[in-house]
Amino acid sequence: MYKAIILWIRSSFGFSRTEANGYLVLIALLMVVHFGVTRFPSARQFDLEDPAFLDSISQILTTFQDSISLKTNSIRSFDPNTVAYDSLVSWGLRTFVAANIIKYREAGGRFGRPEDLKKLFGMTDSIWLALSPWIDLQPVNLVPNANKQTPQRQYSKEKTHQNPTRKDLNQVDSVWLKSIYGIGPVLSKRIVKYRNLLGGFYSTEQLNEVYGLSPEALSNLKEKIFVQSDTHLSKINLNTEDFKRIASHPYISFNLAKAIINYRDQHGAFNSVEEIKKIHIINDSTYLRVYPYLDF
User: Fold this and answer.
1) CA dihedral of 56, 122, 201, 216, whole degrees rounded to 10
2) Residue 157 has what pLDDT?
3) What are 142-177's pLDDT values in tens digits?
4) Per residue, what are the HEC states of 64-97?
5) Of the candidates 231, 212, 224, 226, the residue with the CA atom closest to the CA atom of residue 180
6) pLDDT per residue over 72-105, tens digit each?
7) 227 in Cβ contact with 170 (< 8 Å)
8) The CATH number of domain 151-226 is 1.10.150.280
9) CATH number of the domain at 236-295, out of 1.10.150.310, 1.10.443.10, 3.30.2090.10, 1.10.620.20?
10) Would the CATH topology of 151-226 be identical to that of 236-295?
C-alpha cells in the first residue's frame, strides 16, 4: 500500500523517491495538527515562548528535513556492516547518524537485518524508509574479518620495510600520492582537494573519509605517511567568518553553520571554542571532529 502511494505521488508530481517520502511525512504532520486543533480547542492555545513547545516543533522539522535531505540519486546498494562513513555522508545522511553506524560496528555490533538500523540513535523512520530499498546485507562469511590479515596487507607491510621513508601527509602532492599502489590520478587529486577543504589533516585516520579509497590503498598509504603533532591547520574564526566560509567546511553542515551564526548574533562573540557545545544540535562526536579547525 505504501509503495503504491509513493509510486502514485512520483508519477503525478514528478517527485524523486526522497521527495515523495518527505511529502507524505508533511501531509501526515498537517493532518495531526489539524485533528488536534479541531478535536481539542484548548490545543489552539500555544505559548510560543515555551522552550518545551519550541523544542518539539524543532524535532518535527528536523524529522521532516531528514526525510528530504537524502540524495537518493546518488545512493547505491550497500551493506551497513561494511559501508564507509564518507559514503553515508555523501548520500545526505546526517554526520552524527553516520558516525553512530560506524561506532556500532567498531563496538562489535553487526546488522543482521535492515530493521536493526532503527535501533541507532538518530535513525528516524523517515531516514530508514529512504535507505531501506538500498540495504543489501551480505552473508556473514562474506564480511571481511577485521582481525584477519589479508595477503595484500602482508605484502604492503613487506614493501614498507624495503622503503621505510615516510612523508608528511600535509606536505605531499598529487604526484607523490600517485606513486602509492592503489592510488591513481583521480584519488590523488581527491585526497589533496579534501585536505584543502578541511584545512589540513590532524590525523591519518581522516583518510577514511576520502571517497573511493579502498582498504588496500588506504593501508599502503598509511604505512608511508605521518602527520606532525604540531601541524598548523587552517582554522575558522567563529567570531569573524561569515556563513559561507563556515558552511564550506566538510565537518560543518548547513544547519550547524546557520546555528553558529544565529548563536553569535544572539549571544555576542564566542569566548572559547568549547562554547559552541551550547548549541543544541552539536553532539560530542561532531565537536571532537571539528574543534581542531575552530578559533575565536
Assistant:
1) -170
2) 35
3) 444 444 443 333 333 333 333 448 899 999 999 999
4) HHHHHHCCCCCCCCECCCCCCHHHHHHCCCCHHH
5) 224
6) 667 788 889 889 888 888 888 878 888 889 888 8
7) yes
8) yes
9) 1.10.150.310
10) yes
211 vs 231: CA distance, rounded Å: 23
Residues for the chain: how many in total? 296
Cell of 16: 524523486
Question: Which residues, 6 or more positions from 215, have their beta carbon under 8 angstroms from its beta carbon?
Answer: 144
Q: Which of 3, 240, 266, 43 is nearest to 129 (CA)?
A: 3
Indicate the domain borders of the chain.
2-66, 85-140, 151-226, 236-295
**Exposed, middle or buried, 146 (CB in 10 Å: 0-12/13-18/19+)?**
exposed
Interatomic CA distance for residues 24 and 64, integer angstroms: 10
User: Cell 556473514, residue?
Assistant: 140
> Residue by residue, what is the 3-state secondary structure of 118-179?
HHCCCCCHHHHHHHHHHECCCCHHHCCCCCCCCHHHHHHHHHHHHCCCCEECCCCCHHHHCC
Could you give the CA distance from residue 210 to residue 194 in angstroms, rounded to a whole number?
A: 7
DSSP bridge partners of 226: 168
- Give the separation between CA 289 and CA 233, rounded to whole angstroms: 13
